[in-house]
Amino acid sequence: MQASRLLDNHCSVETPEGIDFTQAMAGPVVRILAFLIDMVWRGLVYALIGILSGFLGGFGMGLYLIIGFLLEWFYPVFFEVFRQGQTPGKKAMGLRVVNEDFTPVGWGASVIRNLLRAADFFPLMYVSGLLSMVLSRRFQRLGDLAAGTLVVHVDRQSAPQLDVSIKPRMPQQALTRAERQGIISLTVRSRTISEPRQQELAELLAPVTGVTGEAGLERLKGMGAWLLGRK
Amino acid sequence: MKETEFEQRYSPLWLLLEALLEAGRGDDKVPDEHFPEQYRQVCGHLSMARQRDYSDALVSRLNRLVMLGHHRLYQRDSRATLQRLGAALATFLIALRQQRRYVLCSALLFILPALVMGVGAYLSESFTYSMLSPDQAAELEAMYDPGNARLGAERDSETDLFMFGYYISHNIGIAFKAFAGGIFLGLGTVAVVLFNGLYLGAVTGYLTRVGLGVTFYPFVIGHGAFELTAIVICGAAGLMIGHALIHPGRWGRLDALRQAASEAVKLMYGGVFMLFVAAFLEAFWSSSSQLPVAVKLSVGALFWLSVLWFCFFSSLGTRREPR
């Protein structure tokens, strides 16, 4: 229990509607990947401006420095405020910056978290930010801590359709809540788990079904379909 | 109610909302007046689905729908309009007056080392070299040679716009670091502000000693009004963060940090604006050697007076209620 709580990256917030809704926090690895993607994009813009400014002499160099400055400090702010908390890199990795109450970030929070990048970078290569991310409960770097923001995974739409070939059958005995949940999730996920693994899992519930092997699995899925309300 | 029945009964609403929320992304399509009610219904469905142990797939579908709706319902007005810019300026002034103590500390942290270093460097050359390397000193002398066509950093083929870009990326970077350093218990801020004070003192003292004050003072006075004030203000913002961490008072350290940061960022709005003005002046006005020294000095003094008056004495900040 303790271990699973430490491993769990979900975090829930109570909304004004009185419900808890949960989001998965994004860990250091995906965030680093998102950062690298952003770096490539920025690098491309730098290169483009660099080539253009080459033709313009001192005027171009000035432009290059100004745009470089804006890219360095305000590129994330722009996307976080105007593009629902997603820089191109974060979008590619399915991440999003939100406030701690899961509302979209505004100007203030975004400016704080991006100005504090300088502190996260200290002394080099985002060492402070990485340490803070690993040590804090919700993977927050220093800028996130000060601004009260989180980086969350955006849920993707993925509803695995239930296999229609399963024939529902009524369970012959009373099931505990844990058993019901186990059976239902085995049934729902049966398309994404390999056949041998499914049978292995079904073996664990052999005392409930009373049958082992393929027939046991068949029976479990039938019970699952029945529990889901199929007739 | 069994899960399939539940899903059949409510999925028309979910599909409707999913279509609305996903299509409306990016453009400003405003959901109709039924949206809040529909969203709250889905919130109810989510908690029911959880409570009744419906399958993970259904719960996560509803959770996703709630997240989309939540973001839409509670989105902030993020448009950048002139009106907002004015409001930011007013909040900056109000915050500046409220946080006088930090501004004063930051100013002392900047001015005192600058004075000590300045007087020291003026009186003894070896004192200068504790701060500047002999190469740097020679470079400074070359920069402020009265014979130069343009003053400031070396300029051969570069234009004023190049220097504008340079000052922006360099000076504003320093101010941002002064702010960010606050999170290391304020130590980073103290280090940046103190170092810049010492550096300024050393340069001023040294140049006065070698008799280049004639070119140096008219050069710095104009943009200095904006730049030095802005560095002090950004330092004050950093000190606020550091102070909140050292002495959080009745709050938890993290909460204190968050509150201090949201106050401090208001100071940064004004600080950044002033630094842009300073970079502009430094590149296009201060560097000009055509203008007579008297004009530059008097305009510079005027800048100082108006900046200080605007920041601390104008009625602009006090008239409006803080938001």
Fold blueprint:
The complex is a heterodimer of chains A (231) and B (323).
Chain A: H1 2-7, E1 10-14, E2 20-24, H2 28-82, H3 88-93, E3 95-99, H4 107-115, H5 117-121, H6 127-135, H7 142-147, E4 149-153, H8 177-188, H9 195-204, H10 206-209, H11 213-228
Antiparallel strand pairs in A: 1-2, 3-4
Helix pairs in contact in A: 2-4, 8-11, 9-11
Chain B: H1 3-23, H2 35-51, H3 56-73, H4 82-98, H5 100-123, H6 125-128, H7 134-143, H8 160-180, H9 187-209, H10 213-246, H11 253-286, H12 293-312, H13 316-319
Helix pairs in contact in B: 1-2, 1-3, 2-3, 4-11, 5-9, 5-10, 8-9, 8-10, 8-11, 9-10, 10-11, 10-12
Transmembrane segments (chain A): 44-71
InterPro entries (chain A): RDD
Membrane topology (chain A): Multi-pass membrane protein
Brief descriptors of the model:
heterodimer, A: 231 residues, mainly alpha, 2 domains, two-stranded antiparallel sheet, 4 strands, 60% helix, B: 323 residues, 13 helices, 0% strand, elongated, transmembrane helix (chain A), RDD (chain A), Putative RDD family membrane protein YckC (chain A), transmembrane (chain A), membrane (chain A)
